Each structure stands twice: as structure tokens, then as C-alpha cells.
Amino acid sequence: MSGLSGEEARSVTRSASPTLERKLSINLVGNPAMGLREYREGPQESHRGNEPDGDDANRRQYDGTKLINLGTNRWGFKPEVGVAVPKGRWDIDAYLGVWLFTDNDDFYPGGRTRSQDHVVALQGHAS
User: Fold this and answer.
1) 3-state SS of the chain?
2) Which backbone phi and psi does 38 adopt, to 5 degrees?
3) Which of 15, 23, 44, 94 has its CA 20 to 30 A from that of 87?
4) How would you class 7 by CB atoms within 10 Å of its CB: exposed for 0-12, middle for 13-18, buried for 19 or more?
5) For residues 103 and 115, is the Cβ–Cβ distance under 8 A?
6) How far apart are CA 120 and CA 101, in angstroms?
7) Sign for the pseudo-dihedral over CA of 32, 37, 43, 46
């Protein structure tokens, strides 16, 4: 990447692995786990779940004195609840969650703190 910083031409190279994401889903209420045949033949009912989600910032090459970095030097979490309702041959599901972020206490130009308010997320699917 290259560009002008003030009146000076600068370039920088950044390379690292992408941000690591993990997801854990827990079925709190509803149908038990089934095989494919059981799923096709068995009765279906609405179910709710909780899906905590984590996002790990890439810290290997983060430098608070540099404007361009691959990661954000912070953690993000997305607790989420969902509900799925079978309607005939259709499955309708919806999820409500909120992204929560930790502070980056080494933000550009170094030593500054960057914080972010939570972000509410809503999504739905029909299959």
C-alpha cells in the first residue's frame, strides 16, 4: 500500500493471517438432535437458542504508531438469541443480537484510546 503522508510519499506492507472467529451455538428449548431420516419424518416444533459469538483481533503486527493495521487490537463479542418456527415445508428463523467491543488502548498515533458503542443486529431467514 502506498500514498502521501503530508508531502512525502510512503509505502507499507502488511501481511498476516485473517482474524480468527469462533462460534458456539446452544439449543436451549425445542427438538432434540436427530438423524436425517428422523428429521424428515419427525414432528417439528418451534425452538429457541442462544448463540454467543467471538471475534479475535489480529494483534501480531498491530502497531499503535501506524495508521494502517490489519487488526483492530480489541475484542468483539456478539451474544445472540434466535427462534426457529416450522411452517409446513418452510422453516422461518430470526435472530437478535448485540455486538459489544472492548477498548483499543493503543490507537493511532499511539497511546490513545478508541472505544465503540454497541451495535444491535437483527436477521431473519426462510428456508
Assistant:
1) CEEEECCEEEECCCCCCCCEEEECCEEEECCCCCCHHHHHHCCCCCEEEECCEEEECCCCCCCCCCCCCCCCCCEEECCEEEEEEEECCEEEEEEEEEEEECCEEEECCCCEEECCCCEEEEEEEEC
2) -60, -40
3) 23
4) exposed
5) yes
6) 12
7) positive
What are the beta bridge partners of residue 2?
11
Q: What is the pLDDT of residue 50?
A: 47
Q: Are strands 90-101 and 119-126 parallel, antiparallel or unpaired?
A: antiparallel
pLDDT for residue 122? 95
pLDDT at residue 53, as a whole number: 39
**Which grid coordinates are listed for 94?**
430470526
pLDDT at residue 45, rounded to an integer: 61
CA neighbours closer than 13 Å in the CB half-sphere of residue 60:
8
Q: Mean pLDDT of residues grouped by 10 in the chain (127 residues)?
A: 70 67 72 75 59 43 75 84 87 92 86 91 93
